[in-house]
Design goal:
The complex is a heterodimer.
Chain A lengths: L1 H23 L1 H28 L9 H22 L2 H8 L2 H5 L5 H30 L7 H28 L7 H14 L14 E2 L2 E2 H4 L4 H14 L3 H6 L13 H5 L11 H31 L6
Chain B lengths: L3 E12 L7 E12 L3 E6 L5 H8 L7 E6 L2 E2 L4 H7 E5 L10 H12 L4 H9 L15 H13 L6 E5 L7 H14 L4 E5 L3 H7 L2 E5 L8 E3 H6 L5 E7 L5 H7 L3 E4 L2 E4 L4 H14 L2 E8 L2 H9 L9
Parallel strand pairs in B: 3-8, 3-9, 6-7, 7-8
Antiparallel strand pairs in B: 1-2, 1-4, 4-5, 9-10, 11-13, 11-14, 12-13
Helix pairs in contact in B: 4-5
Classes of the chains: A mainly alpha, B alpha/beta.
């Protein structure tokens, strides 16, 4: 119990320090906001071009909504991951790593602290830059229940992404100059979660264990989190989410979520077994990534690379 | 029964890096240090002084050997050791966008300590006027003081590992710091690495001399070492021409040639005066510089023994 309190105390200190520092680099924040605005514009244009030539079938959203929600989702997660993957390198450059590690502040704690602080910063960017165009286009949850559902799936994705970030970041304990490795990793995650191309578009060509690809990605929660966010933001009512049949906010007919993805989702709320499954997968993945980062920490202490950058 | 703060037996450390051949930094380090002892780790560049401090303070894992810190196993009881030691190095820097106060608060939380001792130290060092200034404006001396303030926060620490912490301090400030430290650390075990022999003599009573490759097996009392010296001065002379051994012995029998400089080693003030007079009278040299041998010379010469023209 004492150890847990001790960890929380140190985590709190790391988060607070990172938050203060982040908010004082004003030029950086301006660049991030501008970059996000450019991204929103580019993806709206891409979605409009796509809509003009092809329309997705079975889903309630247009391609503009597809990209807008993904931009919002990855504004937070790309931003947070890119800020966090340098956490170890930054501590090493600063010379604080040795002092912190010899005071029981583990690299895992430093990474998680950075991840949480970066989330707070990027949520501000999300609400300032991405949410207004979504609201302007009428793409937002139609009821309080759907707002709760979107929050839950977002949190699940956030937990899973913490695991991904822990793995990417802790690699820099052993290997140096990992910037490109991290960029590639973030891009792969973005692609795999359907941020760039709808994952169900591969269903006709990719079947595994007798099931289409999109039906298996329940094991990779960010994909379903992003997909269900698009649905939650587009459907007129919660019941339509499960059953389909109505016209969506984008004026499209659509099937039920479960029909398309072979799931048994109920309401995307706290009682939904699909949510429980994704939460368990995410938590187990984070625990595995903590063990992985702990192992790399031990190796780096053994090899003497823990302070190098 | 003697209470030891540190007991090391055949401690070795090898650095590995992906794609690189392993490098052995420390080899068979064995020594014991009593609780409350003040030890300086000395040796030439690359002898592993800083690495030894980093291993003992739990930053690096040793590759071979047994080591106990405050009767705790260095490999298995890392966290318990970390609760009771502090390691501060000259490489410790601060978040530039945080003020001195914010930096102190952060390190206090990390160490689960109060900032009281740190503020007292900052006050004694006349730095309270920069308490709300960001670290990006600090001079090297102010950073050195801040590092020490952070290191002094942890009241429950029993061993202080200080690596070149006086680097960047001006002469007066260094004097104040040494005065403060010598009082503050009276009841703690101290291990320092410092290239300034004055710092070592002021703070420490024992030294551990690392030979190239990081080999050592005993600590030595500084007092005994000083008393056992065969010479206490070094006189450097630049000859006008190449001198024969016969000519050099005529001046003083104990000398070595290093490049174009001849170094003579008298063992007291009278002898030093005599050598200087002979050099001046001989007219064979252009430049003469006399200096007292200090602890750093001793450490380096003990780790890399010199051979004088005639044994003392």
């Amino acid at each position: 119990m004492f150890a847990l309190f001790s960890e929380l105390r140190m985590l709190n200190a790391v988060i607070k320090r990172n938050l203060i520092v982040d908010l004082r680099y004003k030029f950086q924040i301006i660049v991030e906001i501008t970059w996000t605005a450019v991204n929103v514009l580019v993806f709206v244009l891409l979605g409009a071009a796509w809509d003009a030539t092809a329309s997705p079938s079975g889903v309630p959203y247009s391609m503009i909504t597809f990209f807008l929600v993904a931009t919002g989702f990855y504004t937070v997660f790309s931003g947070v991951m890119e800020s966090t993957v340098d956490a170890i390198i930054e501590e090493n450059k600063l010379g604080t790593m040795g002092f912190l590690v010899t005071n029981s502040v583990s690299p895992v704690l430093l990474i998680v602290g950075r991840y949480i602080a970066a989330t707070a910063r990027w949520m501000i960017v999300l609400f300032v830059i991405v949410i207004p165009p979504l609201v302007f286009k009428g793409v937002y949850p139609s009821s309080l229940t759907l707002i709760v559902s979107s929050t839950i799936v977002f949190i699940i994705a956030w937990i899973f992404m913490m695991g991904v970030t822990l793995i990417f970041t802790s690699v820099s304990l052993i290997f140096k100059k990992t910037t490109t490795f991290n960029k590639v990793g973030i891009y792969v995650v973005r692609f795999a979660s359907g941020g760039i191309v709808p994952i169900f578009s591969f269903d006709k060509s990719i079947h595994l264990f007798g099931k289409p690809l999109s039906n298996l990605l329940i094991w990779f929660p960010p994909t379903y989190a992003l997909e269900s966010l698009r649905w939650i933001f587009s459907v007129p009512t919660q019941s339509a989410l499960q059953n389909g049949g109505l016209s969506s906010k984008d004026g499209l007919p659509f099937e039920g979520f479960n029909q398309l993805f072979g799931l048994n989702a109920t309401n995307f709320g706290i009682t939904d077994p699909t949510i429980h499954f994704m939460l368990i997968v995410s938590i187990i993945f984070v625990l595995i990534s903590i063990v992985f980062a702990g192992m790399l920490t031990k190796v780096s202490r053994k090899w003497g690379t823990i302070e190098f950058y | 029964m003697v209470n030891y703060a540190i007991t090391c037996k055949n401690l070795s450390k090898i650095f590995r890096s992906p794609g690189q051949a392993p490098i052995k930094i420390l080899t068979d380090i064995s020594f014991q240090l009593r609780k409350g002892a003040k030890l300086a780790v000395t040796g030439g560049n690359g002898s592993g002084k800083t690495t030894l401090l980093k291993v003992l303070s739990t930053l690096y894992l040793p590759d071979e050997g047994d080591c106990k810190i405050l009767d705790l196993d260095l490999r298995k009881q890392t966290r318990e050791i970390q609760e009771r030691v502090v390691f501060v190095s000259a490489g410790l820097d601060f978040q530039r966008k945080l003020t001195l106060e914010e930096n102190l608060n952060f390190f206090a939380k990390v160490q689960n300590s109060s900032t009281e001792d740190a503020y007292k130290f900052i006050q004694d060092m006349n730095m309270t006027h920069i308490i709300d200034k960001r670290a990006e404006t600090f001079s090297e001396g102010q950073k050195a003081i801040t590092r020490l303030a952070i290191g002094l926060m942890k009241e429950r620490s029993e061993i202080l590992f200080l690596d070149e912490v006086t680097l960047g301090l001006d002469v007066n400030r260094k004097e104040e710091v040494l005065e403060y430290l010598s009082n503050k650390v009276q009841n703690k075990t101290l291990l320092i690495v410092d290239h300034d022999s004055n710092v070592i003599e002021r703070l420490c009573s024992e030294i551990l001399i690392l030979k190239p490759g990081g080999i050592s097996n005993q600590t030595i009392s500084i007092k005994e070492l000083t008393e056992s010296l065969p010479y206490s001065y070094e006189i450097n002379a630049i000859p006008k021409r190449s001198l024969t051994d016969h000519e050099l012995r005529e001046i003083w029998p104990h000398y070595i040639k290093t490049g174009s400089i001849i170094k003579f080693y008298p063992n007291d003030t009278n002898q030093a005066q005599r050598v200087t007079n002979r050099l001046i009278r001989s007219g064979l040299v252009n430049n003469i510089q006399t200096r007292k041998i200090d602890l750093n010379d001793l450490a380096i010469k003990m780790s890399e023994p010199i051979t004088l023209a005639e044994e003392l």
